[in-house]
Structure to design on (203 residues):
């Protein structure tokens, strides 16, 4: 029988409490978006950050055959990005990119104008100087598809790169996917992260 795995409520409560503190308005926003230091290779050159959001949600895994055994495989994130404390910025998920004939990519849809971007991975880092041992990697992604909202909204369509940093949680479970009977089981693992969106200079 297929099983769904949800992380214990105290873990989720801790992550949500951290999120509330982390999304408090930043003085840096008055003069623009300021990006913290990142691991080597995750820097973005030739572009400027124009949006930042704090994500609260889950990394969703499914148990699948892998080689001679079985392993958890990420099938989608399911998160909401906030800014200025509590204002919803985007939703985040995996979805088909129309610019790549429906290739499934990480996607972000703006909460107000429904503009959407899809991005592919450039580099991931679990550098211990930046990334907690029990957290999913920090990422640099390049936008490979854009779509304006139904009313012509273009807030996200300027985006060329996205960084995911300051991750907490989200790692696939260590158990629950070890036998054929586990195939199809799902695990919804709470996580938080900060996302930075970049656009060309002088956009």
């Amino acid at each position: 029988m297929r099983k769904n795995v949800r992380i214990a409520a105290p873990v989720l409560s801790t992550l949500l409490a951290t999120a509330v503190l982390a999304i408090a308005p930043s003085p840096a926003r008055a003069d623009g978006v300021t990006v913290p230091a990142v691991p080597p290779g995750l820097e973005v050159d030739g572009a400027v950050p124009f949006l930042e959001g704090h994500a609260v949600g889950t990394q969703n895994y499914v148990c699948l055959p892998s080689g001679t055994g079985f392993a958890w495989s990420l099938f989608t994130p399911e998160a909401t990005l906030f800014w200025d404390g509590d204002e919803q910025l985007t939703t985040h998920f995996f979805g088909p990119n129309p610019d790549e004939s429906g290739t499934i990519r990480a996607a972000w849809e703006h909460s107000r104008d429904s503009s959407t971007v899809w991005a592919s991975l450039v580099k991931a880092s679990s550098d211990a100087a930046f990334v907690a041992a029990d957290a999913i990697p920090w990422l640099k992604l390049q936008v490979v598809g854009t779509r304006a909202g139904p009313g012509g909204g273009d807030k996200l369509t300027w985006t060329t790169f996205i960084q995911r940093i300051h991750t907490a949680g989200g790692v696939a479970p260590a158990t629950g996917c070890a036998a054929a009977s586990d195939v199809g089981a799902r695990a919804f693992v709470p996580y938080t992260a900060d996302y930075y969106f970049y656009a060309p200079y002088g956009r």
Observations:
- Helices lie at 9-22.
- Confidence is low (pLDDT under 50) at residues 7-31.
